[in-house]
Amino acid sequence: MKKLIIFAFLGLSTLAFSQNVKKAAIVVPAEQAKLESQKKAAEEKAKLPKPYDPKADAQADINKLVAQAKKDGKNIMIQAGGNWCIWCLRFNNFVQTTPELKELAEKNYVYYHLNYSPENKNERVFGKYINVKEQQFYPFFIILDKNGKKVHIQQSEILEDGKGYSKEKVKEFLEKWKPS
Q: How far apart are CA 102 and CA 1, in angstroms?
């Protein structure tokens, strides 16, 4: 009887161990895929231009932009985010490397990258346009008229398409909020 109990125990232990090994084998490829995805994102981020300046005096910069916008009859598009944010970098690169979008942005907007990072959260500047106590998702856009009055806040996720942005949606956004 002891032999039967020991045999049954060993059989069940082996079965249980083999189930754990199968689960571990399934988790490893998932973790590997996650690591590969993170590595690709880091490589992409390293190659993209970094338009945000944590050391900038954002309020002074925006004051200059308002003067420029008045002179040129343009609106101001503030892209809020940071160099840490791959979606922020992707949007900037997308607009700058898509001739039709770049032309539309340059013709109608004075474009500024408002930094949000641990080094400089620019809370006083952000506080003029949004509730800084609410969670923000970056990038987002603050559209000001030529006098510096807030016209619109736009979240970026509705402009996304897969791992990038939709040319049609971004064009529609830029057209909608250009000066009238």
A: 83
